[in-house]
User: Fold these one by one.
Assistant:
Number 1:
Amino acid sequence: MLTDYSRIVVPYDHSELSKKALKMAMNLVKQDEKIELYVVMVIQPEIQLAYHYAVPIQDRREEQFKAIEPIREEINQELLKLPNKTRTFVLEGDPARTIIDFVRKNDADFIVMGSRGLSGLKELFLGSVSHYVVQKANCPVLIVK
Ligand SMILES: Nc1ncnc2c1ncn2[C@@H]1O[C@H](COP(=O)(O)OP(=O)(O)O)[C@@H](O)[C@H]1O
Ligand SMILES: [Mg+2]
């Protein structure tokens, strides 16, 4: 079924559901080694959280890039198990818009992501990133629950 797809994007925020989405995407691409798998993590240094109100934006940026590196390395190690072409990306900006922009620019044709992410708010429906991506994507989106 998936052999029609050529490039799958997994937006990853290190939440349990994004881990599940990545696992599912890895299983999917195993069906055809020509399918590429791109994992995308979006950081938001411009977001001013109460607990680091005094930290300048450039320091927050460096802090976030540094914090994400071991996670990226862990994912790279996992991805090495696949014969497929795989890549990980760390991008910066509003996650929802950045993911949509990335998918378009990279001609991806399938997205696998979690319904919920890291935010503690227990909303009734989808999280805001998954909601936006489903609305705006020009390709199929698999929402993992
Ligand atoms: N910063 C991010 N970078 C990459 N993917 C993200 C990011 N934030 C969310 N996602 C993706 O979107 C899914 C849903 O998260 P989200 O919509 O943010 O829900 P919540 O509101 O519960 O945090 C996650 O499981 C992940 O796949
Ligand atoms: Mg979130």
Number 2:
Amino acid sequence: MTTLTRTSLLSITPPELFMTETIAKDFRVAIVGGGICGLVGAIGLVRAGIKVDIFEAASKYGEVGAGVGIGPNAVRVLREFGLLDDVESFSPEDPPSVRAFKFILGTGTHDMLYHYPTREDDLGLGVHRASFLDALVKFLDPSVTPTHFNKRCNQISRSNENPLRIILGFSDGTSHETDLVIGADGIRSSVRSMIIQDGSKAEMPTFTNTVAYRGLVSIEKLKLAGVKTELTPSPICWMGDSRHIITFPIKNDHVLNVVAFVTDFSIPMGHLTLPKGEPWVVPVSKEEVVNEYEDWGNDPLTILKSIEQPTKWSLHGLYPPLNSYVKGKVGLIGDAAHAMLPHMGAGAGQGIEDAYVMTRLLAHQQTKASNLEDVLQAYDRIRRPRANAVLLRSKACGDIYEGHGESGPSSRGRETDLQYLWEEVWHHDLDADIQVGIDWLRDEGVFV
Ligand SMILES: Cc1cc2nc3c(=O)[nH]c(=O)nc-3n(C[C@H](O)[C@H](O)[C@H](O)COP(=O)(O)OP(=O)(O)OC[C@H]3O[C@@H](n4cnc5c(N)ncnc54)[C@H](O)[C@@H]3O)c2cc1C
């Protein structure tokens, strides 16, 4: 673990949480899904001395080429895992920085309504997803922690020979026996569908009535095209009626990551569905994007016109949130547990927090094969309330940006609703949560 070099809430970690990391465990873990959350989880577990296999449906690691913002809460976790310095060195063009939103009107002359207040140590990351994943992959020695590619999990059952063990089945007909399964297989999680079978369809992600147009643009090109608004270093939320655009710089301020949202507020969320078989992500023409914003001001229109190959994402999420993230010895992390609207830039961060909490609980000196179900219950008790709260808050944030917040669409109304939006997301003490989980395990007689 690297030395802490900056002030961190996690620096108050009780030593008990970490003193166990070298104790050999009598169980193995299988992680289904090698996205950002699965890989952070794998690295954490391996560093805690736990044996891990990763099963990934794709033929190699890969991420769609877009930016992802990682908030100060998740940056602290990366640092605590000893990953931050290496992610930084792998991606030197995107060092951690204080990245508070500027809220600007999308129409007229783009008046600034509010600049979110930050603390000096509110360091966030804005990284290219593929670079981030590449940086993470380098931490896993394939001879110790193999990733099994082309393995799409489609079955989970108990072993007939040893009912304490779990069998994962894959679409190619092969199987794998393990002690604990972590479902990190994203928003369309098969693991989630297999463990939540209560007939409620709660495991199915809902269309959120919001589409997002995404793309990357050269900042130099935008300056040449006459964009006057300062696009760096702060991320910008351009606000309008039922629409908003998020822009933030990546690649050492050379590239602007653009996500332009359009929401249909005329129908309650959950009532609209995409036609069967329609893909959630499709390429679209530049004209389609620009038409949605034709009444907006010069700067956002110029940005949208400059996107070379825009894609349209029909945003889905787990609304309403799940009632449980675990069943038996199977637990969910990341989007599999709480796929949310991206309006707080907090989805991946919550998954990284899941990985941290899961790792610390599994690494505890008293965690063993015989009490894994209880330890997963502790994980669920800690993580579900927090991540589900962020999931609901993400929807509420989008409503504010698009003029549908509690205090209405006026500038003053939006400003009122924007106050301290990120406070609870960024400044949360995860180690205190973990201690609550450990205390619960003691109260239940699982830990002594
Ligand atoms: C428009 C948009 C903008 C966003 N912006 C941000 C942001 O700024 N900040 C932020 O924190 N978050 C953001 N998010 C959310 C963030 O992208 C996700 O929360 C995060 O990528 C989820 O990571 P994950 O590892 O849980 O899932 P994924 O990245 O989806 O990875 C899942 C992996 O599992 C594999 N898999 C799937 N099914 C199976 C199976 N059955 N068997 C084996 N493998 C399987 C997949 O191939 C994939 O590799 C945004 C999301 C969207 C849509």
